[in-house]
Amino acid sequence: SSYEHKLDFKKSKEACLSYIQDAMLQKQWKRAAEFLTYYIESLEKDFSRESVGPSEMIWRMGAEIFCHHSGSSVKEFNSFTEQMKTLGLKRYLKISLEHTFYLLCNGLIDEAYQNLSLAESWRFGEYSATQDEEKKLIQAYKGLLDYYSWCKQKNILLEHGQDGFEDLSVEQEMHNCFRKAAVSLQEIIKIPGVWDLFVKCYVDLLEFYGDHNEAHQVLNEYAYNSKFPANPNAHVYLYQFLKRHGEPKKSLISALKILHDIVPSHELMIEFNTMLQKSKKRKKRRLGLEVIFAALDYAGWKENLKAWSCLARQVKQIVISEKHLDWIKQEWNSRKDWWPAFHFSRYLAKRNWQENESLSYEKAVVAGILLGKDCKYFKYVSHQGCKAQVKRFRILKKFVNKHNPVCLRISG
């Protein structure tokens, strides 16, 4: 019957789609391509008039297969993409952008630029807000390619100097690329979003031409505008800019404080801690201790020698002076239930000693102060250090034994 025929046809389509997905997951690109061909043929024979909307699915799967299939060529991918653009008119701009990425990955810069130029002038139906946003994205990526051309011209100019007519033409071309790139990039970064690459390129352009105030304003807006999503990189870029231009430490600390609040495990926390420890203000030194403790809460920092050195130096200074022991105690109270197993087990002591003697020393300083002389980590490392006749380990053992009453006050 007609109903049974439609049901069988639908099942075969679903099975074919499942085979494609399975082949892609197993990276069997030739098999996936064959099943995709059958799937497209089945859609052409589908007279059910059901609203299946397969164009985006075919485009996504086809693009992935083309990118990985050893037998595919740029010419074939271009042909496939043009068909997809016609098939999914509402997705024309998205497909054009994907097409651009493929061309760029194959080193076809000029073709990618031309593809973006065609997409930029494309129109379909009533101009919607979605189309407007996609168009700005197309223009922004075109701006990135203009920036790339600007970099090439700049490097030629810097390499050969500014003498002669030929260099003058290079400089003129460089300025043309700058203007086109700047116009495109400054438009996209006005829209709330994560635009790291575009912001970096635009700031580079502004800095090269000495417009530091505009660059600073752009980075401030990107980092602090509440309409934009929280973005750690925005604060990193602002901090790096401020540092490059010799801004006061107060501004640098302010930028890193927000970064610490968002990503306490960021690699810049070592730099932040060092900056805070050099401050004369007690509040900032207190924050420095908090920053380094927070960083070491993360597994990625477990074997970071610089971090353990920073913490060892600070807790040692506090124990010697016996001032601000409450700072250490406050940080330790929230960690004493899990840090011993996380950082100071006998297993870690053996491994650290075998792999990195310096790391094991710094950790032993911290372990001895936080947990006292009976700590497993401290006992193993100090014993091995003394056995190997390393002077600093003997000094460490004497230090922890001498200050053990203070250490016990910290550990509770």
Brief overview:
The protein is mainly α. The protein has helices at 2-25, 29-44, 55-68, 74-87, 92-105, 109-120, 129-160, 164-188, 196-208, 212-224, 232-244, 249-262, 269-277, 282-295, 305-321, 325-333, 339-343, 346-355, 357-371, 376-387, 391-402, 404-411. 30% of the residues are buried.
Q: Could you describe the 3D structure shown?
A:
- The chain is mostly helical.
- Helices cover 76% and strands 0% of the residues.
- The chain is extended.
Give me the count of strands: 0
Mean pLDDT: 88
- Main β sheet profile: none
Radius of gyration: 31 Å
Helicity level, as a percent range?
over 70%
Keywords:
extended, 412 residues, TAF1A polymerase, 0% strand, TAF1A, SL1/TIF-IB_Component, mainly alpha
What is the topological layout?
Layout: H1 2-25, H2 29-44, H3 55-68, H4 74-87, H5 92-105, H6 109-120, H7 129-160, H8 164-188, H9 196-208, H10 212-224, H11 232-244, H12 249-262, H13 269-277, H14 282-295, H15 305-321, H16 325-333, H17 339-343, H18 346-355, H19 357-371, H20 376-387, H21 391-402, H22 404-411
Helix pairs in contact: 1-2, 2-3, 3-4, 4-5, 5-6, 5-7, 6-7, 7-8, 7-9, 8-9, 9-10, 10-11, 11-12, 12-13, 13-14, 13-15, 14-15, 15-19, 18-19, 18-20, 19-20, 19-21, 19-22, 20-21
